[in-house]
Amino acid sequence: MKLGLQIDSFTWPGGAEAIGSTLARITRQADDLGFDSIWVMDHFFQIRGVGRPEEPMLEGMTALGYMAAHSSRARLGLMVGGVHYRHPGLWVKATTTLDVLSGGRAWLGIGAAWNAEESHGLAFPFPPLGERFELLEETLQIAQAMFEGERGSEGTFDGRHYHAARLLNSPQSLSRPRVPIMVGGGGEKKTLRLVAQYADACNVFGSPEAIARKYAILDRHCEAVGRDPDEIERSTLQDVRISRDGRSGTASPSQVVDQFGDLADVGVQHVIVSLDRVHVPDQLDLLGQAVLPLVHAL
Questions:
Q1: b/e per residue 261-298 (b: at least 16 CB within 10 A)
Q2: pLDDT (tens digit, 9 = 90+) per residue, 211-232?
Q3: Residue 248 pLDDT
Q4: How far apart are CA 106 and CA 259, in angstroms?
Q5: In degrees rounded to 5, what are phi and psi of residue 136?
Q6: Which residues of the chain have pLDDT under 70?
Q7: What is the per-residue pLDDT for 75?
Q8: Cβ proximity of 95 and 60 under 8 Å
Q9: Which long-range contacts (CB under 8 A, 24 or more apart) does 195-199 make?
Q10: Residue 222 and residue 194: Cα distance in Å, rounded?
Q11: pLDDT computed for residue 201 by the predictor
């Protein structure tokens, strides 16, 4: 099993002046510990459940470019990009740039999005959900074409929402046959169908039972489109509060390993962790030293 780290908050000691140095340190530490992937959210306001909208939030692709310069082995991605934030060609060019400059370590993480407050607050469109799914499918089609060959398909695309005259992608990604595409979300009729048809990984969350249900539905979508389900990496996003003794509402390392073992039993191949107090070095060390080697053995 792989273990990834999501950095979902930048509310750290020292204020804005310390965000850069703290993010660089966390990235280097996670990379040195052997985390398989490092992610940031693609949001512009902090989201409910993590903090107040006014709390610091970095733009995701810019943050990943900075993180690429402070790491050497972990893959880097958005968990996950809101499709309406960027037009398809910009999605592919930005992700290809990250892949080339990181030495072939990018993910393209993308989904239909949900946070209308950001769009309304910052004056960019927030299409209805059905339209966002249409945008997502066309974006995935364009991404596949642009990642083909040495410089993309260089063909055209004529969809309902997007019209492209030349799908050129130069330089091409170092990741081959393409930058892996993760579609986030567990929607059973649309999202998981798009995973089956276009993606290299899914990301769902919940209990092991809920995740197993989503994976079973994904398998049925794969059968319907003629896709081998083993081609799709099964990932999940999980919150972790950890301490050495497991007191005060935290879990001990052995309890975290047991939790991830239950996830492995239902088919999870890649657990991505939102770690409480990730800016505290001892927290990340504990997860990396006491949990990561055992997770890799699952």
A1: eebeebbbebbbbbbbebbeeebbebbbebbbebbeeb
A2: 999 999 999 999 999 999 999 9
A3: 87
A4: 28
A5: -65, -45
A6: none
A7: 98
A8: no
A9: 195/221, 195/232, 196/221, 196/222, 196/224, 196/225, 196/227, 196/229, 196/232, 197/140, 197/221, 197/225, 197/227, 198/137, 198/140, 198/141, 198/143, 198/144, 199/140, 199/232
A10: 10
A11: 98
Q: Report how far apart, in Å, the C-alpha atoms of 284 and of each of 68, 163, 171, 275 are.
A: 19, 45, 35, 8
- 147 CB-contact burial (10 Å; exposed 0-12 / middle 13-18 / buried 19+): buried
Domains, the chain, with CATH or none: 2-296 (3.20.20.30)
Both tokens of 232, joined, read 């799709």
The dihedral formed by the CA atoms of 289, 286, 23 and 118, expressed in degrees to the nearest 10? 120
Contact 257, 238 (CB under 8 A): no
99 and 173 Cβ atoms separated by less than 8 Å: yes
d(CA 196, CA 198) in angstroms, rounded, equals 6
pLDDT of res. 132: 97
Element (H, E) at 142: helix 129-146
